[in-house]
């Protein structure tokens, strides 16, 4: 048998094996010749040569019916497996060619800048030839960019509803109430919405997605906050909270990766506000192979990575930031 395989690998051509596999699959020389765009005599000659290379007959004709010998059947089945493996290889190679170089363009809302770079790290390591372009802006600025549609993806927790897009949800985004450690409500088991409303509040700027989510929440609860200051940056808000200027509501992601020293989460009724992160792109745009791979990565490894960080800091589980 070993000799037989050696003869086969030396004398048979891949084309002959393909012909054999096709005859086996379709059950006749005529059907195989049509499928392969060959004449019937060519198919028969190639099968004969293959039989000679193996030193065994591969099939015989019983009347008009083609009957495979045990050898012929075994070789045809192996050839079928080889060709299916080769076609998988072809797809993987094409995929790799597409991923070797090119660009991935992202526009993300400011709050997601805390975790998006952590997702990009392992992806860039795997595909070092890909050039990444990352724009950051508040929700309104990213909506404006989405309208122009120059990027592959836009990351929002509140995608706009009036633009025709595809949107996939990939991660939770809890918005939590933060206060300085020394705050009288810190450590209280329960803080009411009425108590929250009395506190001086630091609000993100108009156009911010965080502000949009807070305003939707307030409307639903029929509540008005005591807004003391409008601040255009999550980091500046955290520092203002630390220094006792007021309390605020921010995405927990600003604390997981951005640090939470000196801050605590207040246990306020109906909070956190739970939203989720979305990868968004214009419906009219088809994804490039790079974008497609990135999307798969985000939903799989990328998401696990960020969820792991949440678990590690114990943020959601304990509700205390430290
Ligand atoms: P923002 O967006 O950074 O503009 O506040 C955050 C969000 O969309 O939740």
Question: Which short descriptors sum up this protein?
Answer:
322 residues; Arc Repressor Mutant, subunit A; D-Maltodextrin-Binding Protein, domain 2; seven-stranded mixed beta sheet; two-stranded antiparallel sheet; 13 helices; disordered C terminus; binds 2-phosphoglycolic acid
Would you write up a description of this structure?
With 322 residues, this protein is an alpha/beta fold. The chain has 3 domains: 2-81, Arc Repressor Mutant, subunit A (Orthogonal Bundle), CATH 1.10.10; 96-171 and 277-311, D-Maltodextrin-Binding Protein, domain 2, CATH 3.40.190; 173-275, D-Maltodextrin-Binding Protein, domain 2, CATH 3.40.190.10. It is 49% helix and 22% strand. It has helices at residues 2-11, 14-26, 29-36, 40-54, 70-100, 116-126, 139-148, 193-198, 209-221, 234-242, 253-256, 289-313, 315-318, and strands spanning 59-62, 65-68, 102-109, 130-137, 153-156, 165-180, 200-204, 226-231, 248-251, 263-265, 273-282. The strands form 3 sheets. Strands 3, 4, 5, 6, 9, 10 and 11 form a 7-stranded mixed sheet that branches. Strands 1-2 form a two-stranded antiparallel sheet. Helix 9 links the parallel strand 7 (200-204) and strand 8 (226-231). Helix 2 crosses helix 3 and helix 2 crosses helix 5. It is elongated. The N and C termini lie far apart (70 Å). Residues 316-322 have low confidence and may be disordered. The structure holds 2-phosphoglycolic acid. Residues 109-111, 138-139, 156-158, 204, 208-210, 213 line the site of 2-phosphoglycolic acid.
């Amino acid at each position: 048998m070993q000799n037989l395989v050696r003869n086969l690998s030396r004398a048979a051509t891949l084309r002959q094996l393909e012909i054999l596999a096709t005859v086996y699959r379709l059950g006749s020389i005529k059907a195989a010749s049509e499928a392969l765009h060959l004449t019937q005599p060519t198919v028969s000659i190639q099968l004969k040569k293959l039989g000679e290379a193996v030193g065994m007959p591969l099939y015989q004709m019983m009347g008009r019916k083609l009957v495979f010998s045990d050898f012929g059947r075994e070789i045809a089945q192996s050839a079928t497996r080889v060709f299916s493996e080769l076609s998988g290889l072809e797809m993987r190679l094409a995929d790799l060619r597409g991923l070797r170089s090119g660009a991935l363009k992202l526009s993300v809302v400011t709050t997601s800048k805390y975790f998006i770079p952590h997702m990009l790290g392992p992806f860039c390591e795997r595909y070092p030839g890909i050039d990444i372009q990352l724009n950051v802006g508040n929700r309104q600025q990213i909506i404006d960019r989405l309208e122009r549609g120059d990027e592959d993806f836009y990351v929002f927790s509140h995608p706009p509803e009036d633009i025709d897009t595809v949107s996939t949800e990939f991660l939770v985004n809890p918005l939590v109430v933060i206060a300085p450690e020394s705050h009288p409500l810190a450590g209280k088991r329960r803080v009411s919405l009425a108590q929250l409303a009395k506190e001086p509040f630091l609000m993100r700027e108009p156009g911010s997605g965080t502000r949009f989510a807070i305003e939707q929440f307030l409307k639903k609860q029929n509540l008005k906050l005591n807004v003391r200051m409008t601040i255009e940056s999550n980091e500046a808000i955290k520092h203002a909270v630390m220094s006792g200027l007021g309390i605020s509501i921010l995405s927990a992601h600003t604390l997981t990766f951005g640090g939470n020293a000196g801050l605590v989460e207040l246990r306020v009724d109906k909070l956190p506000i739970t939203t989720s992160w979305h990868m968004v792109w214009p419906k009219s745009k088809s994804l490039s192979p790079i974008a497609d791979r990135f999307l798969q990565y985000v939903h799989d490894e990328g998401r696990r990575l960020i969820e792991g960080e949440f678990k590690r800091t114990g943020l959601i589980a304990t509700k205390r930031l430290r």
